Amino acid sequence: MPEHPGKADRELLLAAQAGSADAFALLVRRHQQALRGFLRQLCGNAAEADDLAQDTLLIAWQKLARADAGRSLRPWLFGIGYRRFLMRHRSGRRQQARERRHAEQQAIQQADPVAACGTAGVELDLERALLALPDAQRAAVVLCLGAGFTHEEAAASLSAPLGSVKSWIQRGREQLAAALGEAS
Amino acid sequence: MIERRLREHWHRQLPPARDQAFIEAIQQRMELHRQRRMTATASFATLLLVPLALWTAPELARALGHVSGLALLLTVVSLGWLAWESASG
Prior knowledge:
Helix content of chain A: over 70%
Distance between the termini of chain A: 47 Å
Strand content of chain B: under 5%
Oligomer: heterodimer
Structural class of chain B: mainly alpha
Order of helices and strands of chain A: HHHHHHHHHH
Radius of gyration of chain B: 25 Å
Helix content of chain B: over 70%
Low-confidence stretches of chain A: 113-123
Low-confidence stretches of chain B: none
Number of helices of chain B: 4
Order of helices and strands of chain B: HHHH
Strand content of chain A: under 5%
Largest interface: A-B, 34 and 23 residues
């Protein structure tokens, strides 16, 4: 049983940096759900996302000394997750498979006017629309519009300038709106 | 609105807040990692100590002879490196 149930992240981080496995376990319990949610929306695959989340938490444990206890833990943790995702993703195969699926879907819609008309009036697949966004845009949109990160926190997570994050969110919102047939 | 749909989607696809299997899997990986680090540290210490022993004990090196000493050194380096690689991988 963890010894620090009521403590803030900062106190837990300091305790974990001092060697408390209980404190780190409590941090894992607090953040695993959102981290996995973020990675699930990046990957589009729950099993792969959970595997990445485990890698992320293991790396966080190894590099705990580098975490700044004076700042929020979430951007640091999610930043590790995002970089792990990019490292795997850039192997290329998953990206190619996803692009191929997306191209096939578009070809089916263009070739089938009934299906194309039908999609205008029904719920489009938000997940597919999200997966069609470039990685950085998708990450920024999910962090800020889904997970409730501030723009500054998202910029810290994605190691990107604040202006880029704002622009990714704007463009991502517009592309999603266009894909889903809604006003942005 | 896109924002509302994204927030709803975010909450829908979240895993359970208390996922004991996931927490236990992390703890097992942490323990495995700790054991591997200990093995790697021991291998690395061996890698450093054997050449040091040969260097600080010239009579041992002479007894082994230059060729066999070099072969031993290379073997130790190779084994140490392999151990380090396998332990950290």
